[in-house]
Amino acid sequence: MKSTKNRYSANSCRQDSNSETNEEENGELCPGFKDVDAFVKYGLGAVLSATKASAGLPQAGDEYDFYRSFPGFQEFCESQGDGLLRCMSQIMQHHGCRSHVRDQNKLTGLEERFDLVVDSNDVILERAGILLDEADGVNRNQQPVMPAGFQPPKIVVSSWNRKGPGSGSRSETFRLLHAKNVTRPQLKFKERIDNSNTPFIPKIFIKPNARKPLPACKTSRERPEDLDVPAALADLIHQQRTQEHVDDMFAHPYQYELDHLSTQEKLLSKPEPQMYKPMAETKFSFIDSLEDLVALNEKLCKLSEFAVDLEHHSYRSFLGLTCLMQISTREEDFIIDTLELRSEMYILNEAFTDPSIVKVFHGADSDIEWLQRDFGLYVVNLFDTHQASRALNLARHSLDHLLKHFCSVDSDKRYQLADWRIRPLPDEMVQYARTDTHYLLYIYDCVKVQLLDFNHSQPGLLQSVWNKSKDISLKKYVKPIYTEESYLELQRKQKKSLNTQQLTAFRLLFAWRDKLARQEDESTGFVLPTHMMNKISEELPKEPQGIIACCNPVPPLVRQQVNELHLLVQQAREMPLLKVRKHEVMLFGPHDTSRVSESDLLHLSPGELCFILKEVEKKDAQKSLSVAQMKARQITESFQNPFRMYLPSKDVHVNKNAKFDPSSKIFEISKRWKLQSIEQQQKEMEAKKKAKEEAKEQARKATGNGESAKSGGKKRERVDGEVGELTPKPSKKLMKSAEKPQKTEATPQESFKPFDYSQSDLRVFAGTKSKDSTQFDPNRQDEGFKKKVSASGNRSMSFLAGKSDRGFRHNWPKR
C-alpha cells in the first residue's frame, strides 16, 4: 500500500511539473483549458450531467426498496456513496473544515453529516465572495482613511441595551440613547401644548420682512375669556365674534412673499466651492439662554447663507417635540436648546424670512412643518440639497450618501433614533448633531456646480431645484383630526378581513387610544401599538387577563386602563356576528373620488353607488347636451329595460338582518319599494273597478235597446244588483260587447230568424216555456247564461251545456 501511495505521489508530482511546463509553454490556465471561461463551461457541463444521472436513479419509496433487494444494486450504491463521501471529505480538508463525514454514528449520522455540509458550504461561499470583492477592487480588511479629528464608531455586539464586556462607559452611553428617567419637558413649557381635536392655527403674531402685512386676526396674542376652551378653538370663536374672515387664520403667513420671490442672478451662477474647516478647528456654541439667541440672530442677519437642521422626538408626545436646532455658518457651529427656548424661538424669523439669505436644508419636508408647529417659524429662500440630489440622479439621496460622496465622511448614525430630550447632551450626540450641518454649506456649493455642469452651464436645472424648494417652504402644518371614520384608513392598511364584532372592537380601541393619547400627551404607539390593537381586536378576550396576554410587553397605560379596555371588548362582543364584505368602489377609475365624498362612499353598497352615480351623470349631462343629443339619448334609453333599476344587482351581498333594521339603508329602500308596489296595486284595483262599472252601464243600455215593444204583458226585468252580486268579474264577451255597443245596435232585427222551438226536444228544458215573449234576444241570452233568476214568480229557463241538439250557435247571424 505504501509503495502504491509513493508511486501515486511521484506520478502526481511529475504531472504537476509537466503541467507547469505546459502552461508556461502554451499559456494555459490549467491542463486542457485555455482560460477561465473554458474551465467554467466544462465544469457546468459536468455538474449538469451529474444532476441528470442522479435524477435517473430510482426514487425513494417502493421503487427504491425493490431495487435495493438486489445484492448487485446494493453493492453499487454503497461503493458510489463511499466515493462521493471521500471526495467531499477531501474538499472540506482543502478548505480547512471538519471532514469526518464517514466516521459517524448510524443513529445520528445523517443529521451530523448534513450540518457538516452546510457549514462547509458557508465557508466556501464566503471565501468566494471575498475573492470576488478583491477582484473588483474592494478590500474589506483595509482600514478606511479617516479625516482629522474623526472618532471611529464603537462596534456594538448583539442588542443595543446589552452591556458589553468592555468598559462601563459604553454601557452608559447606550443606556442614554433611550433613557427612561427623562423629565418630561412639556411640564416646563410656558404655553400648554394644544392636543385638542381642532385645526391648527399659525402661532405667528409678528411678521418681519413682510411685503404684505399680517392680518389683524394674527397680530394680537390675546385669548378670549373662554378658559375651558382649547386655544385653537378659542381663536376661532374670537374671530367669529369679531366677524373676521376665517380663511386668513389658516392661510400661510408668507404666501404672498413666497409667490413673488424671484431667484437672484448670483444664485444661478457657478460658485467656487469653499472648503469646510475641520470640525476640531471650528468654533462651537451651545445656546440655551435668550441673550445668546438674540446675539445669534444678529449674526445670522449679516450672512448670505447658513445651514439648518432639526432633531425631533415623537415617541413620548402626541404631536411631537423639536428638541434641537443646529445652525452652521462658514466659520461657526451652533446648537440651540429648543426645549428651553421654545417660546422665544420666534425671534429667528427675522433671519429665516429674509429673502436675501439662503437657508440650506436637507430633506426639509418635515422640518418646515415642525418649525411652524412648535415655534411659529417660516422659511423664505430655501435650498433643499435632497431635491438637488434627486435632480442629479445620484445613487442615493440621503445625507449620509452626500457626506460620503462629496466630503468622504462616514457619519455615525447610531444616534439617529436617540432620545434627544436628554439633558445634558453627551459629547457623542453633540458631535453627531454638528455633523449634520457642518458640511452642508460645502455640499450646497458642490451640488450647484454639478447642476450647472449637468445642464451645460444653463441655469434651467438649478432653477427647477429652487422652485421645488420654494414649494416645500409653502407647506403648512396640518394637525391630526379624529373623525368617526378615522379608523377605517388604518384598518385598510392591515389588509385583514374582520367581522362586525372585530371591526367594532377595532373602532372602539382606536377611539380610546386617540382620546387617551391627547389627554396624556403621549404618542398612540406608546399608549397602544397598532399590532397589539389588532391582536386584541382579532382575539376579543373574555377576561382582562386575556388583554394583558395580547400585549408583550404590556404598555403602562394599558395596564392601568385594562378594565376600561375590557368593557370596550365586551361591548364589541355584544354586536351581531356578521361578515363584513369589502365593497369595491365602482367609479371611473381606482382613484376616482371626485363625484362622491368619501364619507358617503363608506355607507353605500355597490348597487346604490352605481345608481347614484348614474343619476348624477344624467343631471350633469342634460345641462350641457344639445337638442339633437337629447333626442339621441332618449332614443337610446327607449331600447333599455325600464325595470332595470328594480332588478337585483349581481354580486351584491345583502345582509338578511339589515332588511329588518330600521336604521339601515336597505330597510329604507325595501320599505320604499313596498309602498310603491302597494300604491300601484291600489291604482290597478281602482282601474278594474271603474272598467267593471262601465261594462255594467253598457250592458244595461244594450238590454234596454233590445227589448221588444210587441209584448203587452209584463216583461221580465233584470235586477241591477244581480250582475254585480253574481258575477264578480265581467266576462271577456261582456267586455267586448261593452266596448262595441254601436255594432250590436247597428244589426238589423229583420234579418234575425228566431229558433223554432216546435222542432226541438222540450225535455232538455228544466222549466216551462215563457208565455210573455217568444222573441229571442241574444244580448239577454249572453247575460243570463247559466243563471237562475226569479222574477214575478216565474222560473227562468236553464239548460245543460253539451246535451242540446239545437245547434243554435251555428245558426246565429254573425255580429
UniProtKB/TrEMBL annotation:
One of its GO terms (biological process) is exonucleolytic trimming to generate mature 3'-end of 5.8S rRNA from tricistronic rRNA transcript (SSU-rRNA, 5.8S rRNA, LSU-rRNA). Its cofactor is Mg(2+). Residues 499-579 form the HRDC domain. It is found in: Cytoplasm; Nucleus, Nucleolus; Nucleus, Nucleoplasm. Residues 681-700, 769-786 have a biased composition (Basic and acidic residues). Residues 1-16 have a biased composition (Polar residues). GO terms for molecular function: 3'-5'-RNA exonuclease activity; metal ion binding; nucleotide binding; single-stranded RNA binding. Keywords: Cytoplasm, DNA damage, DNA repair, Exonuclease, Exosome, Hydrolase, Isopeptide bond, Magnesium, Metal-binding, Nuclease, Nucleus, Phosphoprotein, RNA-binding, rRNA processing, Ubl conjugation. GO terms for cellular component: cytoplasm; nuclear exosome (RNase complex); nucleolus; nucleoplasm. InterPro entries: 3'-5'_exonuclease_dom (IPR002562), Exosome-assoc_fac_Rrp6_N (IPR012588), HRDC-like_sf (IPR010997), HRDC_dom (IPR002121), HRDC_dom_sf (IPR044876), RNaseH-like_sf (IPR012337), RNaseH_sf (IPR036397), Rrp6-like (IPR045092). Residues 1-27, 681-815 are annotated as: Disordered. Pfam families: DNA_pol_A_exo1, HRDC, PMC2NT. Belongs to the exosome component 10/RRP6 family. Component of the RNA exosome complex. The catalytically inactive RNA exosome core complex (Exo-9) associates with the catalytic subunit EXOSC10/RRP6 (via its N-terminus). Exo-9 may associate with DIS3 to form the nucleolar exosome complex, or DIS3L to form the cytoplasmic exosome complex. The RNA exosome complex interacts with cofactors C1D/RRP47, MPHOSPH6/MPP6 and MTREX/MTR4. Interacts with MTREX; the interaction with MTREX mediates the association of MTREX with nuclear RNA exosomes. This is Exosome complex component 10. It comes from Amphiprion percula (Orange clownfish).
